[in-house]
Amino acid sequence: MIRRSIRAAAAAALLAAPLGAAPAGAVRAAFLPQFARSYYPGRSGQIMIVPREGHFVTRDEPVNQFMHGSPWSYDSRVPLILYGPGHFRAGAFDAAARHQDIAPTLATMLGLPVPRTMTGHSLSMALRPGALAPRIVLLVVLDAFRADYLERHAAAVPNLLRLKRQGASFARARVDYLPSATGVAHATISTGADPAVHGIVVNTMFDAATGGVSDPFADRSPRNLMAPALADIWSAATTGRAIIAAQAGLFYAAGALAGHGACAIGGRPAYAASYDATSGAWVGNAACYRLHPSLAERNPRLLWEATGGVWRGHDVSSPDLVRRSALFPAFEVDSLLGILAAEPFGADAVTDLLLMNFKSADFVGHQYGPDSPEIAETVAAIDRAVGRLVDAVEKKAGPGGAVVVITADHGMPGVGGDPARRHFAADVVRTLNAGLDPEGKRVVRHYEGSNSQMYVDRARLLELGLTLGDVSRAAEALPWVFAAYTEDEVRKAAAPPVH
Prior knowledge:
Number of strands: 19
Number of helices: 19
Structural class: alpha/beta
Largest sheet: 9 strands, mixed
Distance between the termini: 7 Å
Radius of gyration: 22 Å
Shape: globular
Strand content: 15-25%
């Protein structure tokens, strides 16, 4: 147990420092616990992949030219800002921070006992003791918003920099689990739990029994979320009196933030909505949540009609295409502001929760990359939208009545001018199956780059007289792979210490 604690502390210290100067073996050892924090039997894969720094695996399609998911700093460093005069101490804190710490911090602020499902810890050094509970808590997750965007685009983000300057900020905030992906991150932020506890461990869930792939919130249902979200806990503690509303670009972000709603035993339906890229409508799940009536009047068509259907020379004349532009943040924030205006947020002593995912930086980053003029314009549009949202929340909550938490779920890699750093998941599967199983070509059943893991046919391995170790060694032999761990290695690292 002591040795395990020492190893964990050493890994944490290593990951808090620049990785470039560390020996490759030490870095490899430090990444293993990150997969262990996300290991969930039956949902996790059998081979966990870390590409070499600067390389990434994606799909061969125009909208996914860049793909996150790795532990390298461009994917794992995230901004974390806690703003609320009278509630948070202003200043830059050197303490390490992670997604799992956000929900316990807010729970402590709300006077809730931190449940045992939360593996994070309250960032108590930033809390002002004796502060009254806020009237409104606004949690904003900026999808794929790299931490360095605040420096690289400083002139374009005055609102975010004001919140950082006047609030508590954590320069060492980072994702400490793998993969660094949207669905996994939002569930971790909302529950305060490691993915190994809350169960949302990949963006696309592979069913080994059927060979099918599904969204972790398939049918917009929270049934796969195995831990309570802060929204669930606060709704129960206030017997449903708190107003809780969540909105996101995809439902696995909205559902994670909103929690289980009425689909939990004794639960009550929070407002929850995600954007439908086919219809352009905001949609939900009436069995678990409420869809706010103000969203029915929102139509993204106005966005592209105002620009002639073109943005920076790109076609944006459809509900799907327009969300991949800097036009979309205004639509996102207008939709949430409609809910804020229509409901009595902050009208009584019960704190209300407003939970939002801004999606555009992710879609634009996937298509054009983090170094593009498209992302620069999108970052500026997000900042303007955040400024409008924070102003409206502060006005609604009254002086000293609002708390704002700003973070990101993950970052985004670039190619540094070298497109050879981009690899395609389908090619990887073909290469490994051709080498390991030239006749059947079915050892690797499924691989999605953002999930950072492969699903292997164990029965076929037995037929061929192979082991998972053989697969991991074949994967590590690929020139762009930094490390490949077997499920057995990850399971061992995830095992509780022996007392």
